[in-house]
Amino acid sequence: GAGVSQSPRYKVAKRGQDVALRCDPISGHVSLFWYQQALGQGPEFLTYFQNEAQLDKSGLPSDRFFAERPEGSVSTLKIQRTQQEDSAVYLCASSLVAVGETQYFGPGTRLLVL
Amino acid sequence: SQQGEEDPQALSIQEGENATMNCSYKTSINNLQWYRQNSGRGLVHLILIRSNEREKHSGRLRVTLDTSKKSSSLLITASRAADTASYFCATEANTGFQKLVFGTGTRLLVSP
To answer: Could you give the angle at the alpha carbon of B39 between the alpha carbons of A83 and A88, nearest 5°?
Structure first.
């Protein structure tokens, strides 16, 4: 595809429910990132993959958050037992190489936990 | 946590005027990138400036970088109503990992 795609675009979950957010990066991009953006704030880093290897997960806020990229392309961010504070926009980005290149962002998934 | 601050937090101008936004950051960087975000949409990459560059142009955009002051500025010349958006700077640290650390953003409103 021409750009990074994410699905679903919107997700409403009841507190305690598990959710899975999908990211399709630009074909051939080695690096994939997840960011969380709270209302009125800049995005904050969650985790980073280089191909299928998760090299940095220092931004994941708790052990309820889990991300995977098993074949080095599509990635899934899973949030277990969602809480109201998880409500945010989750952004996925990809870049061609490992360091020093432009990151291209998807449209995001807006998660609302009730 | 956010890397640094953007200034101003909000800016309101008329079409045709220039808009200047400033960004300050805290650590040594590989590069600094500017992004635009329209309401409810994803981030659109505008320009990347590397740590060994001082100025870069792209169309109506001019970015400067002063690594000694750990600051950058984005100038949009001859603004248009379509430039209305939030603008974020983001830094890539020179630690070997690519993660971007974003500023708090400047909300720009351009009135016709």
So the answer is: 10
Interface probe, candidates A99, A104, A110, chain B, greatest B C-beta count within 10 A: A99
The pLDDT tens digits along chain B (112 residues) read: 556 688 899 999 999 999 999 999 988 898 999 999 997 678 999 999 999 999 999 999 999 999 999 999 999 999 999 999 999 999 988 776 778 899 889 999 999 9
| DSSP letters spanning B47-76 | EEEETT-SEEEETTEEEEEETTTTEEEEEE
Cα B91 from chain centroid (whole Å): 10
Q: Which residues 93-112 on chain B approach chain A with CB closer than 8 angstroms?
A: 96-105
3-state secondary structure of A2: coil
Name the token pair of B65.
Answer: 């970088």
Tell me, what DSSP letter sits at residue B22?
Answer: E
Chain A's closest residue to B42, CA to CA, is A107
Structure token digits, residue B68:
């000694």
